């Protein structure tokens, strides 16, 4: 059966490059095997979840090239969670507890002082019906804990290999709050079962949740109901700081506004923290072929935003015309010269938006900069006749070299200034035929053209 995965963000802010590391790894995994990618919004926190963030997340994923096969919202699936909770209560795996946060904290401190692990002592299991009735009459409302089996849970992690957690070292997790709302664990497992998720691939910060979730999968779905798990290392800044949606640091929206290439974001997000070098890719299919879980490090995946900008430029420098053509057309760059133009300028681009600068040089009107009037006049007099091609620049400058005894910067720099109005730029051998003789002659005469 083809794999089914999910990316499950909370729509409480803009996602960042660390979030899309998880999204991309999941997407690349199913891309190889033609599986399904589900976008699940974990929006049970109605107060903090916003539709505008959900829409922004969809937009960010689309920009990266991720097209979900299905989009679901947990906020529309509460009847499933209610039924699951009722089932767990019915088999005695979900039990009511009445301790306040302050009471639980005092117990933890007493346990620590006695050298005991600070886990929940299951005192609520000893309450009688009368005890519970009295507590509720006094205004207490229960929260509900999942009764763990005190066994060692084993799983074969896609990244970490053979893994296990002794559930006797864990507190029975709270699944339902006093106000009846659900914590993350129950809705997540219910959705994974209902959507037939085959593989849960997520950050290593969720490792400690895995044993609990495996027991919950089995309690709701039967033996061997749990998916395959994989926990990758987390992406951090170069200094080792974690990323946060609240800070907005390195959000996908911000990177897009800065002109960073989506494939550079994808390559950086996925390959950082692996044994593979971070290198430009020309498609997500290429990146999928490169990615291997066995190459993922157990150390933090640190990256430098400055390196992302460099990678973005390198991605442009290798981009085919077929990949660029649609974007060029949107920028008003089309026609018979568009392909030659792309290959002429792509190696000098820092962001794709820079194409407008060079299109203006070859098709627009610029004010030339005349650095050496006598030399430029001599150059104008020696302009070759058309048609012009890739050899015209060499023929012209070789003739100038012979006539003026100039070479190096003294020969080339005044010509570049006059023809482009800029100190640096693409190879003039490629630009000159695009500029054409009429514009070149006008600019060498000092006229805007």
Helix-strand blueprint:
Elements: E1 4-7, H1 17-33, E2 36-41, H2 51-64, E3 70-73, H3 78-90, E4 94-97, H4 101-113, H5 129-137, E5 143-146, E6 152-157, E7 161-166, E8 174-176, H6 185-194, E9 199-203, H7 210-221, E10 228-232, E11 235-237, H8 252-257, H9 262-271, H10 284-290, E12 301-303, H11 305-317, H12 321-330, H13 338-345, H14 355-363, H15 373-381, H16 392-404, H17 408-420, H18 428-435, H19 437-444
Parallel strand pairs: 1-2, 2-3, 9-10, 11-12
Antiparallel strand pairs: 4-5, 5-8, 6-7
Helix pairs in contact: 1-9, 1-10, 3-6, 6-7, 9-11, 12-13
Low-confidence stretches: none
**First-residue to last-residue Cα separation:** 63 Å
Q: How much of the sequence is in beta strands? A: 5-15%
Radius of gyration: 31 Å
Helix content: 40-55%
Which structural class is indicated by helix and strand composition? alpha/beta
Shape label: elongated
CATH topology of the largest domain: Rossmann fold
CATH architecture classification name of the largest domain: 3-Layer(aba) Sandwich
Main β-sheet description: 3 strands, parallel
Round the mean pLDDT to the nearest integer and report it: 95
Protein name: Glutamate--tRNA ligase
Subunit structure: Monomer.
Subcellular location: Cytoplasm
GO molecular function: ATP binding; glutamate-tRNA ligase activity; tRNA binding
């Amino acid at each position: 059966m083809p794999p089914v995965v999910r990316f499950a963000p909370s729509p409480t802010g803009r996602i960042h490059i660390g979030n899309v590391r998880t999204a991309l790894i999941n997407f690349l995994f199913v891309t190889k095997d033609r599986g399904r990618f589900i976008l699940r919004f974990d929006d049970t926190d109605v107060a903090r979840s916003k539709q505008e963030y959900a829409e922004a997340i969809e937009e960010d994923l689309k920009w990266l090239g991720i097209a979900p096969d299905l989009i679901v919202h947990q906020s529309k699936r509460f009847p499933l969670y209610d039924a699951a909770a009722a089932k767990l209560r019915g088999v005695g795996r979900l039990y009511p507890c009445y301790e306040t946060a302050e009471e639980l904290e005092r117990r933890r401190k007493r346990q620590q002082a006695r050298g005991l692990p600070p886990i929940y002592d299951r005192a609520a299991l000893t309450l009688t019906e009368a005890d519970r009735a009295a507590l509720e009459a006094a205004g207490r409302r229960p929260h509900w804990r999942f009764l763990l089996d005190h066994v060692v849970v084993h799983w074969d992690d896609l990244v970490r290999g053979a893994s296990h957690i002794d559930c006797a070292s864990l507190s029975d997790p709270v699944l339902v709050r006093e106000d009846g709302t659900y914590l993350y664990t129950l809705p997540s497992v219910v959705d994974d079962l209902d959507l037939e998720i085959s593989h849960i691939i997520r950050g290593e910060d969720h490792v400690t949740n895995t044993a609990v979730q495996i027991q919950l999968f089995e309690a709701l779905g039967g033996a061997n109901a749990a998916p395959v798990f994989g926990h990758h290392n987390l992406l951090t800044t170069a200094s080792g700081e974690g990323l946060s949606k609240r800070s907005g640091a390195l959000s996908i929206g911000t990177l897009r506004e800065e002109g960073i290439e989506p494939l550079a974001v994808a390559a950086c997000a996925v390959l950082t923290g692996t044994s593979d070098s971070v290198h430009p890719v020309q498609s997500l299919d290429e990146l999928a072929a490169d990615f291997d879980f066995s190459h993922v490090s157990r150390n933090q995946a640190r990256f430098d935003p400055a390196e992302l900008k460099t990678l973005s430029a390198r991605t442009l420098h290798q981009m085919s015309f077929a990949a660029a053509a649609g974007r060029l057309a949107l920028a008003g760059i089309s026609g018979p010269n568009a392909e030659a133009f792309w290959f002429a300028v792509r190696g000098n681009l820092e962001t794709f938006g820079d194409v407008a600068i060079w299109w203006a040089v070859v098709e627009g009107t610029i004010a030339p900069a005349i650095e050496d009037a006598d030399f430029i006049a001599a150059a104008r007099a020696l302009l070759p006749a058309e048609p012009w091609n890739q050899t015209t620049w060499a023929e012209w400058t070789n003739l100038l070299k012979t006539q003026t005894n100039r070479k190096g910067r003294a020969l080339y720099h005044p010509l570049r200034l006059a023809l482009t109005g800029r100190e640096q730029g693409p190879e003039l051998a490629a630009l000159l035929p695009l500029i054409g003789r009429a514009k070149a002659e006008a600019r060498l005469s000092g006229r805007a053209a």
